[in-house]
Amino acid sequence: MILLGIDIGGTKVAFRAEPDGADAHESSFIWPESGRVADDIAALHRHAEEVLARTGQSVAAVGVAVPATLDADGRVTSWPTRPSWRGLDLVIVLGELFPRAELRWGDDGDLAAVAESHASGLADLVYLGVGTGIGGGIVLGGRSVPGPGRGSCELGHLIVARQGERCDCGRRGCVQAEASGPATLRRASAARGTRVSFAELRHGYAEGAGWAVTAVEHSCAALAAALVGVGELVRPDAAVIGGGFAAGLPGFVEETARQAARLSRPGHPPLPIGPAVLGGRSSLYGAVLTAKGGTVA
Questions:
Q1: Which of 47, 74, 132, 176 measures 20 to 30 Å from 11, CA to CA?
Q2: How far apart are alpha carbons 37 and 34 in whole angstroms?
Q3: pTM
């Protein structure tokens, strides 16, 4: 029997299958460019079938990390990155994919925070994941905050710049609008005067190019402001930064820590900020924990 974790992201979907008596296997695919929900679901079906064919075992339980907002019945009420998903009944979709498996799901940021807490051994921790969007979660006393039935911890929608960039949610100045991967690339492109790829940004930042440094430092300052604010409220032992964008850009986490240290109050030690133990796979491992019967409570 297989325990399966699925991390549904804004750009790609990652799977981790843990079969009985065999090594775990990870794989992923990029969403179709069309943005149509039918094409997305077809791609999800194809990859799930490939994963199951590889293992040759049936699925006992599936845990899913979801970036979209769901109602109590599992229907998507909002996902700005993929608006065609609005109204989709995710429970039905997953039930068709895995008809005999136990299904569990949770917010990707919440699950990532729980996974990081387990991996680091820290019972009081804040997690921020920087990728296509920004997710986040808080764990206090080993339990996810705010907890089941009370919504997810939307750290990506903390407002850090009242006159800032327009966010996908409709507001201005959310952390996601100021510091996500796409936001950083847009800022770098504007500063350079031409479109900048992630590889070019990484190279430019490593070489100290002004357009790259300015773009990255702006994003890190926004993240630092959010983390310092959260730290004032909940006093965690540490904050960790993960997600594919942050994990792939050397020096990004360290710059955020430096920016946060500048914001610390006299007489109060700065919040320790470091890279996520699980790198860009925190949400995926959180999904696996959920499949195993772990809880975000």
A1: 74
A2: 9
A3: 0.87
